[in-house]
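Next up, a specimen:

>
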Amino acid sequence: MKSQVTILGIESSCDDTSAAIIRDGVILSNIIANQKIHKLYGGVVPELASRAHQQNIIPVVDEAIKQANIRKKDLSAIAFTCGPGLLGSLLVGISFSKGLSIALNIPIIEVNHLQAHILVHFIKQNKKKYYHPQFPFLCLLVSGGNSNIVLVKSINEMKIIGQTIDDAAGEAFDKCARVMGLPYPGGPIIDLLAKKGNPNAFKFNKPLLDKYNYSFSGFKTSFLYFLKNELKKNSHFIEENKHDLSASLQATIISILMNKLYKATVDLNIKEVAIAGGVSSNSYLQKVFKEYAKKYNWRIHIPSITFTTDNAAMVAITGYFKFLSRTFCSINVLPFTRVNI
């Protein structure tokens, strides 16, 4: 009988502590502990994040193992996020993984956070039809820290062909929401308010960049000055127009993202297209993505909402594929903080 491959995945790149178990590609558990304290500061505070990870990681891993109904000795390897991310947060997950691997005498597998977001499309769920992208495909990877268009040729071969040169789309959502006086994280609140607004109520500038790269810094600044000018005329402008502002802001950001993605599909003649990352849960992005698919005959892939934000299931599935190719790492591996794929 073929032995089973059981991977413990650990994610601690930012402010979510997560652990998951995947056996032969099938998800058995995926536990996530959120850190609500950052809402008080309008963004993630790195030192607070790393401290919370230290408190959360043991109970989170313990719960993942219990929910999966396995024993620690059943684990084949431990996969962990090595980067990019916050250095202190990454060190917690990496240090824990190293210690547990020594205790259980099993290998460790370093996982690239960006690759993991993309490979989330290959997670199998019991009693659900397994439907994954065919190679090659393009993936729009959008989150609070990343806005990339990735050409995926195989499980192990990916190339960023477009990326933001400054702010990420998720960061633009959060910072514009903050200017409007909305709490952190602002992206989901903008999405909710936009449902009652007119996406064509206000027009905002769209940056013009070559090829497939993005820029949201100038857009964010223009939005700030627009609000300042309107508030001089009417101090209640934001409150009176919050739905239309949210809808117009959201529509502009999504338009910027989709225009570049469409250009890439045409230039590379690829019809297989996916989205991933925290912003991929945005309802308007999914709506426009489906409209593009229908118009241009794309075969699209949208992850389950559980797998859009940072989670250990994506780390575990990446670790699973690396285990099959015997791609392990040294106990001396160090985290990295910058984008790399």
Q: What stands out?
A: Residues 137-303 form a domain with the Nucleotidyltransferase; domain 5 fold (CATH 3.30.420.40). The chain has a mean pLDDT of 93.
